[in-house]
Amino acid sequence: MSLKIRLARGGSKKRPFYSVVIADARAPRDGRFIEKIGVYDPRLAKDSGERVKIDGVKAAEWLKKGAQPTERVGRFLSQITLEGESAPIYTWAAGNNPKKGEPGKKAQERVKERADKATAAAEAAASAAEAAAAAAAAPAEEEAPAEEAASE
């Protein structure tokens, strides 16, 4: 029998509350479990001490018996240390996937096309501004000789 340390959802609609339980891997998420070892309330602030409460001694015993935590519970267990020990009871090795939040290939192509259009528009505006400045400077030079000829 493979054991999991996982979350069992409770609470009402749009007000989640989870229990950290030891359960058979084949049991349903909110169904039968062997033992409840803690609670997790995601509605509380992340720095709140009441957000995650797990009995570290029971969790360590179940880990020694071969229970495998889920990813979320593994993160919680990696923050728990027992009295007299400096290392956490579980080492969470997974980590965030940095590529998960990146856009796909087509979205990256669209972003590149927009950037190319923006640079082309900026270059066109700059060349138009230069041409306007040159045009404004050129008629002033042409008018000066005409005025000198008229005054003589």
Describe this structure as you would to a colleague.
This protein is an alpha+beta fold and 152 residues long. A hairpin with a 2-residue loop joins strand 1 and strand 2. It folds into two domains: 3-77, S16 Ribosomal Protein, Chain: A, CATH 3.30.1320; 102-152. It is 41% helix and 20% strand. It is built from three helices and five strands; from the N terminus they run E-E-E-E-H-E-H-H. It has helices spanning 56-64, 71-77, 105-151; strands at residues 3-12, 15-24, 35-40, 52-54, 68-69. Belongs to the bacterial ribosomal protein bS16 family.
Chart the SSEs and their pairings.
Blueprint: E1 3-12, E2 15-24, E3 35-40, E4 52-54, H1 56-64, E5 68-69, H2 71-77, H3 105-151
Parallel strand pairs: 1-5
Antiparallel strand pairs: 1-2, 2-3, 3-4
Could you name the key traits of this structure?
152 residues; alpha+beta; S16 Ribosomal Protein, Chain: A; 2 domains; 3 helices; 5 strands; elongated
User: How much beta, percentage-wise?
Assistant: 15-25%
Placed side by side, the strands forming the largest sheet appear as 4-3-2-1-5
According to CATH, what is the topology of the largest domain? S16 Ribosomal Protein, Chain: A
Secondary structure tally, helices = 3
If you average the pLDDT, what whole number results? 86
Using the CA coordinates, give the radius of gyration: 34 Å
Q: Mind describing the biggest β-sheet?
A: 5 strands, mixed
The domain count comes to 2
SS-derived structural category: alpha+beta
Distance between the termini: 112 Å
General shape: elongated
Helices and strands, in order, run as EEEEHEHH
Family: Belongs to the bacterial ribosomal protein bS16 family.
Region (Disordered): 91-152
Protein name: Small ribosomal subunit protein bS16
InterPro entries: Ribosomal_bS16, Ribosomal_bS16_dom_sf
